[in-house]
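for the record, two folds in this file. i put them one after another cuz i was lazy. first one right below, seq on top, structure tokens after. the second one comes after a little note so u can tell where it starts
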Amino acid sequence: MESAAAFIDQKIEELGDWRGKTLAKVREIIHKADPEIVEEWKWRGTPVFAHGGIVCTGETYKNVVKLTFAKGASLEDPSCLFNSSLDGNVRRAIDIHEGEKINEAALKDLIRGAVALNLELQAMTKRNAKPRSTRNRPG
């Protein structure tokens, strides 16, 4: 079975145009922002970047490379990178069009913020989880 990284490599190669180069560039930025990012391959061909939960996806369409942040509505975005999916209560996205320059520092900040939020929510969930009692169990 191929790894998610191999699938993402293959997708970048198959695109063979500005979208592949852009996906490769944002992938590189994501890993620079957080070397512990895990790559996943979900939903029949969507690259997913995760750490403590989904950070963002890297989708490619005819005219755009879209980075969708799973909890983007909860992230601070002082550089206003989010320019798509702005109406929802949970997700936010960045649409990157051909020829657009990526604000690497701002994207790294968003990635780090998303990871921090995931880890914070994970810690809260663990703190609130109550151990199951073994009393009154048969056997």
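(here's the note) second protein begins now
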Amino acid sequence: MNKPEVISAARGRPREFCVDHALTQALGVFWSKGYEGASLTDLTEAMGITRPSLYAAFGNKESLFRKALDLYEREKMAYVGKAMAQPTARKVAETMLRGAVDTASGAGEPHGCLRVISSVACGPAAQSIHDEVVERSNKGKQALIERFEQAKAEGDLPPQINAEGLTRTLIAFLQGISIQANQGATRDELDQLVETALTLWPSA
């Protein structure tokens, strides 16, 4: 466990807290409330720090969110890297779908996907956050398109399959998992969605 870093507030004596722990707490707030729904009071109370300490350690709210999103992608979306390393396109899709269900329905954590929640719940005042989330998602989409193009070249997918269309279909299922989990769908219901999606997957 990292040794707590000493963060100096703008005024008053230095406050000592673990930056990693504070960031984890901030992630929980953003994940459950979205970027705009998370107030500075919500964040500082969850993190156990003052506003000056937040600014000193993380910059502003937007910068804090980006760091929280980095943490989310490293820890909660680690399944994406595992999926991309699978030997077949179907296993890529299955690993992505089951990983999304695991993340969206984890016990003791907010339901849904932070990326999806933040991309659909941002108004004009948070346009830069919306753009950031979309840009990151687009990079992942492009990687999937290239993976499915490779699968076509290897004969793992039918030649008539449109790689971009297949990618968008998979992403639609992934987003659906997040939205339904956020609306209260059970783990069994999400698993049924995955099983149904896999029955529709094209075979070579």
